[in-house]
Amino acid sequence: MRIDIITIFPEMLEGFFNCSILSRAQKKGLAEFHIHNLRDYAYDHYRKVDDYPFGGFAGMVMKIEPVDRCISALKEERTYDEVIFTSPDGEQFNQPMANELSLKENLIILCGHFKGIDWRIREHLITKEISIGDYVLTGGELAAAAISDAVVRVIPGVISDEQSALSDSFQDNLLAAPVYTRPAEYKGWRVPDILLSGHEAKIKEWELQQSMERTMRLRPDLLKEQP
Q: What domains are there in the chain, each with its CATH number?
């Protein structure tokens, strides 16, 4: 998988993609990330990518020309499955969407800034708008990083223990069961006996029961989404 990210703050993302699981995904040849500075596609020597909105509204708006030039340059080199815009009014990002996007080959993510982007970009260049929550961030870089991480980590081979990714919260609309490690007792706080029993079937039954209980208590909305 290849993910191209368009941003005016590339330095915000460079370190993120060179750490942990995303770094390993690149070393294994399972994913590659390319960060593009939108200012490199500006027309003027000031590298200006924003301007005042028509109509006298407050704030600044990202210009259409540099965005179009960048996306067009990328599309001349390969075909993209989705051109994503990170926006607070986009479709809510969730695990099923991450799973779906992980099957794609090439993605572009445009990071928004300022008051927003020229609406013509959304009308003619963007194929999917994604929100990571009902709040507003200074820019779309954090959202692009979160989306990339969630998508790439479920690609087969990225995580050595693939069962670990499959048992994460939200994979089956349930929150994950509690997990424990050594020591089995600490300050009188014990690991549940069932997890020390070695009885695999009963442990699985306990995990499901715990997942259901936690989901009903903390995220009952997820149970309503069950098919």
A: 2-152 (3.40.1280.10), 167-224 (1.10.1270.20)
Reported residue count of the chain is 227
- Helix H or strand E segment including 185: strand 185-186
Residue that is written with structure tokens 């998508």 in the block: 151
Of 94, 107, 83, nearest in space to 169 by CA: 94
Phi/psi of residue 141, nearest 5 degrees: -65, -45
DSSP per-residue string spanning 65-111: HHHHHHHHHHHTTS--SEEEEEEEEEEEP-HHHHHHHTT-SEEEEEE
Instruction: Look up residue 38 and give its two tokens.
Output: 């939108």
pLDDT tens digits, one per residue of 34-61: 999 999 999 888 899 999 999 888 889 9
Cβ neighbours of 39 (radius 10 Å): 16
C-alpha distance across the termini of the chain, in Å: 30
pTM given for the model: 0.86
Strand partners of residue 82: 107
Euclidean distance between CA atoms 154 and 101, whole angstroms: 10
Tokens of 160: 């050595």
Residue 113 token pair: 């800034």
Cis peptide before 227 (omega within 30 of 0): no
- Mind listing the pLDDT tens digit for each residue in 67-113? 999 999 999 999 999 999 999 889 999 999 999 999 999 999 999 88
